C-alpha cells in the first residue's frame, strides 16, 4: 500500500504542477504550437466534463468525481492484486481523479491545456492518467496477466 501512495503522490504532483505552470504562463485561448500540425498548448478553464458534458454544473461533477474516487479505493481494497502494473493502474486512476477533484473544489473548473490537431477535446495530465490507468487495468484483465482474488470481508 505504501508504494501505491507514493505513486499517487508523484502523479498527482505531476498533474498539479503542469496545471499551475500552464495557468500562469499561457494566455487563455492562445494556441501555442509545440509540434506544428500535431500538438499544441491551448489553455482553457473547463467547467464541464469531457466534451463539455455537464458544463457549469460544478457541484454535480464534484459529487461524481468524489464518488468515483471512493469506488476506485473500494475496488482496490476489495481485491488482492498480485501485479505491480495493477497497482500502477489503480494509482493512475486515483491520482488523476484526485487532481481534477481538487481543481474543481478550489477553482470551480479544471485547467486543460493539451490539444492535438484533429482531436475534438483539450485535456490535461490528470485525464491522461485516468485513461492510462483504465486502459492498463483493462489490458491486464483481458490478457489474464493479473490474478484477482476476492478478499474475505471478515478477515
UniProtKB/TrEMBL annotation:
The keyword Ligase appears for this protein: no
Enzyme Commission number(s) from the entry: 3.4.23.36
Record-annotated membrane-spanning stretches: 60-76, 88-109, 121-142
Location in or out of the cell: Cell membrane
Alphabetical keyword list: Aspartyl protease, Cell membrane, Hydrolase, Membrane, Protease, Transmembrane, Transmembrane helix
Keyword Membrane: yes
Reactions mediated catalytically: Release of signal peptides from bacterial membrane prolipoproteins. Hydrolyzes -Xaa-Yaa-Zaa-|-(S,diacylglyceryl)Cys-, in which Xaa is hydrophobic (preferably Leu), and Yaa (Ala or Ser) and Zaa (Gly or Ala) have small, neutral side chains
Gene Ontology molecular function: aspartic-type endopeptidase activity
Coiled-coil regions, chain positions: none
Annotated pathway: Protein modification; lipoprotein biosynthesis (signal peptide cleavage)
Bilayer topology annotation: Multi-pass membrane protein
Top-level division of the source organism's lineage: Bacteria
Pfam families membership: Peptidase_A8
Family designation: Belongs to the peptidase A8 family.
Function, as annotated: This protein specifically catalyzes the removal of signal peptides from prolipoproteins.
Official protein name in the record: Lipoprotein signal peptidase
Organism in which the protein naturally occurs: Scopulibacillus cellulosilyticus
Source taxonomy: Bacteria, Bacillati, Bacillota, Bacilli, Bacillales
Amino acid at each position: 500500500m505504501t508504494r501505491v501512495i507514493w505513486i499517487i503522490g508523484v502523479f498527482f504532483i505531476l498533474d498539479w504542477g503542469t496545471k499551475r505552470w500552464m495557468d500562469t504562463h499561457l494566455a487563455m485561448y492562445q494556441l501555442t504550437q509545440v509540434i506544428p500540425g500535431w500538438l499544441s498548448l491551448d489553455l482553457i478553464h473547463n467547467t464541464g466534463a469531457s466534451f463539455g458534458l455537464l458544463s457549469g454544473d460544478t457541484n454535480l461533477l464534484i459529487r461524481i468525481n468524489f464518488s468515483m474516487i471512493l469506488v476506485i479505493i473500494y475496488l482496490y481494497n476489495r481485491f488482492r492484486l498480485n501485479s505491480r502494473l495493477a497497482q500502477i493502474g489503480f494509482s493512475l486512476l486515483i491520482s488523476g481523479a484526485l487532481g481534477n477533484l481538487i481543481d474543481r473544489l478550489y477553482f470551480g473548473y479544471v485547467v486543460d491545456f493539451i490539444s492535438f490537431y484533429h482531436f475534438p477535446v483539450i485535456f490535461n495530465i490528470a485525464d491522461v492518467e485516468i485513461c492510462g490507468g483504465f486502459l492498463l487495468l483493462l489490458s491486464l484483465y483481458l490478457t489474464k496477466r493479473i490474478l484477482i482474488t476476492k478478499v474475505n470481508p471478515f478477515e
